[in-house]
Amino acid sequence: MDRNSVIGFILLSLLVVGYLYYNQQAQEKYLRFKAQQDSLARAAVGIAPDSLHQQTDTTQLQADSSGILAANSRNGAERLDTVDNGVMQIVFTNKGAVPKQVILKNYQTYTGKPLLLKGNDFDQLSLLIPASNALPLRTAELYFQADTIQQLADHSYLLRYRLPLGKSDQYLEYVYIIHPNDYRISWEIHCAGMNQFIPPADQQIQLLWQAQANHQEKDITVERRDLQLYFKTSVGGRSDIDYFSFIKTRQKNFDQPLQWISLREEFFNVSIINTSGTFTGGTVQAQLPEEDPEIVGQMQAVLQLPYSHQPQITYSLQLLYSPNDYALLKSYHIGIENIIPLGYGIYAFVKYINKWIILPVFLLLGKWIGNWGIVIVLLTIVIRLLISPLTYKSYLSQAKMKVLKPELDELRRKYKDDQQKFAMEQMKLFRMAGVSPLGGCVPALLQIPIFFALYSLFMSAIQLRQQHFLWVKDLSTYDSILNLPFKIPLYGDHVSLLTLLMTITSLIMAFYNKNNMAAAGNTGGQEMAFMKYMPFILPVFFLGFFNSLAAGLTLYYLVSNIITILIQLVIQHYIIDEEKIHQQIQENKKKPLKTSRWQQRLEEIQKAQTAAQQRNRTGR
């Protein structure tokens, strides 16, 4: 590894360390100041700590709405209906006429329990209907009349619930259609005759959505870090997708129309989609109740549906309870696949590398091979093959530097007191020999976008969730061969074997490259004194950073290190012939030099500086 290779490696490593350090500091900052932030947030918005748990006073509601609701709507018997469409088991209740429980059949929690995306006391879905001289009707507290479940010709299920509202032509009706093997639930809301009691000044009906993200994965700290709310706004034919994280934002007001809103968990999402138009606005409040180790976070959204006071109004919505599968979400053609963070922040550009190159290859290999650990190994080989031409040029440049070592040593001795003259003569020698000084930097620099693309992919790929490989039980989280009874700062409370092996192979590469640097004459000079030790120091830092990252990412770097070592041995011992390189260099020296404009300009600057230094010495 020559000097430029070391610089490229250090640049890559520092960027990686900086990125991971930034993420870790953001999380620690949140944990450190959470109490103060909560207090300030509550003071700013005027809500009590348990405001998300407060319920409407149903006694007052029943009294005020006695002229609208039938008695059995206020005090009915709960009826449950279960629908199984192959991928979901949905339990509907006539109280509120909404899904009461949703289980994803093809997934389990980290502890092996059924995976519920809805099914706790906090979850709620309710219309808030304004009524004259009354509190808003909260449909979640009312009992609807339920029809028998119908199975349609295409094997879909249809459920119909009706809430009578006074006269025979006044009612609220929900119609649900659940298609086979579909994570979406079509939900039509029919409002009939409600214009007779909704005040003319009210131009909207509110949809109240309360959702709770439960602890489903191995590390609840990561779950809380990844808990985000995504939303798609639509104004004047232009759409935009944005999000906020629960650890940073506790309240959000939507002043633009919304097409959909999605609660994104680490590997799953619960979303509401308006397929007949847009929500005209709304608000969201969020909290992270860390006193409960089984709750990741809670949110309460109030979304506004436009109301035109027509005798008959229909809203078409969809409820989505699905895994964060990029191909699946993309097939819905509403942009909701963007809730999967394939690249964001200052490294947002890598999402295109993921979308157009890495992810298609990753999914293609997954179709052919049943083990995702093997898929990662093969993906590593594919990536290394793609950059192999640059890697070969890097090693060829290193070999040329090794051949030129005697001449470089002679130049150092000759110009030991004039570093600028040495630099000019060194560049001249490189041009004569056909050596590119930056040849060793390019492969290392190319690894930067690849690393951040893979980091984003492997930290969010549901394909790796609970997938075994060798001793690794779950490629989507860290592998642990030993749980410590204490936490080591900057390391953690467990030992990851993959991270240890990655660190060992990195140190082997560092020792091997140190010998190559010595052979190539790149260990001399004070400017290299620090850099030559960095390849040994950085793997130790990575030991702490990678210890808690997804095993899939660590596996990639372990395999990449092994491939790098093998490639170095093969190229340097079986492909590169130093005698032929020496002969080629001698032939290149005989050829007339072709100097680019940039090189000419650089030489002019160096000559001017040298002349200025000589004048200064003469003047003294």
How would you explain this protein's 3D organization?
The strands form 4 sheets. Strands 7, 8, 9, 10, 11, 13, 14, 16, 17 and 20 form a 10-stranded antiparallel β-sheet that branches. Strands 6-5-12-19-18-15 form a 6-stranded antiparallel β-sheet. Mean pLDDT is about 80; it is low at about 30-50, about 55-65 and about 525. It contains 16 helices and 22 strands. The longest helix has about 45 residues, at about 5-45. The chain has helices at about 5-45, 60-65, 70-75, 220-225, 325-330, 350-370, 370-385, 390-405, 405-415, 420-435, 440-460, 495-520, 535-545, 550-575, 580-590, 595-620, and strands spanning about 80-85, 90-95, 100-110, 115-120, 125-130, 135-140, 145, 150, 155-165, 165-180, 185-190, 205-215, 230-235, 240-245, 250-255, 260-265, 270-275, 280-285, 295-305, 310-325, 480-490, 490-495. About 35% of the residues are buried. It has about 625 residues and is an alpha+beta fold.
Helix content: 40-55%
Biggest β-sheet description? 10 strands, antiparallel
Unreliable runs, pLDDT <50, ≥5 residues? 30-51, 53-66, 523-527
What's the number of helices?
16
Strand content: 25-35%
Specify the oligomeric state.
single chain
Give the termini distance in whole angstroms.
42 Å
Outline type: elongated
What is the rounded Rg?
32 Å
- The number of distinct β-strands equals 22
| Averaged pLDDT | 81
Class from secondary-structure proportions: alpha+beta
